[in-house]
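SAMPLE LOG
Freezer: B-3
Tube label: C17
Construct: single chain, 109 aa
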Amino acid sequence: MISADAIRGYVDIMILSILERQASYPYELVKTIARVSRGEYVIKQTTLYSAVKRLESQGLVDSRPGVSESGKPRTYYRITAAGNEYLRAKCEEWQATKAVVDRFVKGQK
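STRUCTURE (predicted):
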């Protein structure tokens, strides 16, 4: 299992990557993160809600009211144009970060 501390800086990338494909609501985001990570990372709902609200306040996602198939009201989130730009930049940063850490892990100079 991956610790929350190890992955904390990349939660935004995970959320925005999901929302890039389709609008979603928080509970579905939690399930998607657990499924895609194959259970190696399970995000707490409070962590997810905080991240989504932060992304919304930064204009990277927006929300709209919706209704579930069962008729329950839900808030759906979708990525904005600014969110798409931010996601691209963060993915590039991730690749550079991963390359540097891999050099140490693999013992390269």
